[in-house]
C-alpha cells in the first residue's frame, strides 16, 4: 500500500473512558461540536480548495477529483448530550458527537453543501474522514438496533451511544461490524484480475470481494470467494490493510493473492458479469483516466479513491 486507505484516516481520540463519565460529558457539552448526519448519510461539507476545473460541486459521482474539504459541524444546544447522540471522540479538548438531523434552513444551512461519505471521504482531512466514517457507522447501527435480539424488547442507548440495553432484562448489544475480504489477485508478474458486477455499468471494474461467513478465517474466505466468483484457485495470500466501509456496517480487509492466468475464468452467474486479466500498463492508464465517475473514453474505469480497492490497485500499478 502506498498510503493509508482514506477511510482509515482519523485525527480524533476515541477516549473510551469519557463514554461512561457523564460528569465530564456534561462539562464539555457547551464547547462540543455536532456531526449532523441525515437519513441519507449526508452531512454539510466546506471546501478549502475547489475540485479540479471542469467538475462542479453537486455533480453526480465521487468528488475525489482534487480539492480539499472539511466537515461543517454544528454547535450544541441544551445542557447535556441527548440520549441518541454518539460520542465520536475528542480533538484538542473539543468533544465531537454524531447525531441524526437535516438541513436547518432557519439557521442558514445550505442543502447543496450536504454530501455523503462515498462522495467526500477521499477529499476530507483526517479529522473529518475519521469523524464522518464513525458517525455513519454508529448511527446506522442505532437505526437498526431498536429491539433486543434476545427477547424483542425495546433497546435504549447507553455509554454515550456505544451500546444499547433492553428494557426487559438489561441485555447489552454493541455496534455490529460485518467483516468482508477484498483481494487483489495477480499473476506474480504483470497482470491483475478485474471483474464487474452485473449491477455496474459496462466499463466499470474492480477487484473481487465477499463477506466472511460464520466460522471462517479471513484467508479461507479469500480462497472461497475467488473460486466461487471466477473459478480461480489462489495461493500466497497476504494481508495488505483494512478500512471501515459503513454501508451499512462493513469492515473491508484487504489482501493480495496469486493465481494462474492460463486457467479459464468462470464468472459466477448472477454475481459476476465479466472478468478478465489486465496488464499493469492498462491499469496505469485507467487510473490516470480517473474513477468510475470520470467522463472518458478509456477502455475501463477503476474505483474511486474512497474505496480500499483503489488504494490496492494504485500500489500494485506503481511497482
From TrEMBL:
Its EC number is 3.6.1.22. It comes from the Bacteria. This is NAD(+) diphosphatase. The keyword Transmembrane helix does not apply. It catalyses: a 5'-end NAD(+)-phospho-ribonucleoside in mRNA + H2O = a 5'-end phospho-adenosine-phospho-ribonucleoside in mRNA + beta-nicotinamide D-ribonucleotide + 2 H(+). The gene is nudC. One of its GO terms (cellular component) is cytosol. InterPro entries: NAD-cap_RNA_hydrolase_NudC, NudC-like_C, NUDIX_hydrolase-like_dom_sf, NUDIX_hydrolase_CS, NUDIX_hydrolase_dom, Znr_NADH_PPase. It comes from Pseudonocardia petroleophila. Its cofactor is Mg(2+); Zn(2+). NCBIfam families: PRK00241.1. Belongs to the Nudix hydrolase family. NudC subfamily. PANTHER family: NAD-CAPPED RNA HYDROLASE NUDT12 (PTHR42904:SF6), NUDIX HYDROLASE, NUDC SUBFAMILY (PTHR42904). GO terms for molecular function: metal ion binding; NADH pyrophosphatase activity. GO terms for biological process: NAD+ catabolic process; NADP+ catabolic process. Residues 175-300 form the Nudix hydrolase domain. CDD domains: NUDIX_NADH_pyrophosphatase_Nudt13. The lineage of its organism: Bacteria, Bacillati, Actinomycetota, Actinomycetes, Pseudonocardiales. Keywords: Hydrolase, Magnesium, Manganese, Metal-binding, NAD.
Amino acid at each position: 500500500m502506498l498510503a493509508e486507505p482514506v477511510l482509515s484516516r482519523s485525527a480524533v481520540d476515541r477516549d473510551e473512558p469519557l463514554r461512561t463519565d457523564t460528569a465530564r460529558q456534561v462539562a464539555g457539552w457547551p464547547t462540543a461540536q455536532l456531526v449532523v448526519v441525515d437519513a441519507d448519510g449526508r452531512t454539510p461539507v466546506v471546501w478549502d480548495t475547489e475540485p479540479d476545473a471542469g467538475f462542479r460541486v453537486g455533480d453526480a459521482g465521487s468528488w475525489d477529483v482534487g480539492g480539499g474539504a472539511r466537515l461543517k459541524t454544528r454547535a450544541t444546544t441544551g445542557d447535556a448530550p441527548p440520549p441518541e447522540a454518539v460520542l465520536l471522540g475528542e480533538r484538542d479538548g473539543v468533544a465531537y458527537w454524531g447525531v441524526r438531523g437535516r438541513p436547518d434552513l432557519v439557521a442558514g444551512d445550505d442543502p447543496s453543501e450536504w454530501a455523503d461519505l462515498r462522495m467526500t471521504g477521499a477529499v476530507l482531512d483526517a479529522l473529518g474522514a475519521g469523524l464522518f466514517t464513525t458517525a455513519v457507522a454508529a448511527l446506522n447501527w442505532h437505526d437498526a438496533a431498536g429491539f433486543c435480539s434476545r427477547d424483542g424488547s425495546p433497546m435504549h442507548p447507553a455509554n454515550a451511544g456505544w451500546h444499547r440495553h433492553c428494557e426487559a432484562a438489561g441485555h447489552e448489544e454493541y455496534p455490529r461490524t460485518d467483516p468482508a475480504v477484498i483481494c487483489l489477485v495477480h499473476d506474480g508478474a504483470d497482470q491483475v484480475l478485474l471483474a464487474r458486477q452485473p449491477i455496474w455499468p459496462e466499463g466499470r471494474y474492480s477487484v473481487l470481494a465477499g463477506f466472511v461467513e460464520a466460522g471462517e478465517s479471513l484467508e479461507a474466505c479469500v480462497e472461497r470467494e475467488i473460486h466461487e466468483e471466477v473459478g480461480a484457485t489462489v495461493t500466497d495470500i497476504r494481508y495488505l490493510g483494512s478500512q471501515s466501509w459503513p454501508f451499512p456496517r462493513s469492515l473491508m480487509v484487504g489482501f493480495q493473492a496469486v493465481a494462474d492466468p492460463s486457467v479459464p475464468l468462470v464468472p459466477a452467474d448472477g454475481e459476476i458479469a465479466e472478468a478478465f486479466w489486465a496488464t499493469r500498463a492498462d491499469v496505469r492508464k485507467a487510473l490516470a483516466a480517473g474513477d468510475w465517475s470520470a467522463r472518458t473514453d478509456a477502455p475501463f474505469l477503476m474505483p474511486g479513491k474512497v474505496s480500499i480497492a483503489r488504494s490496492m490497485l494504485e500500489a500494485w500499478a506503481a511497482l
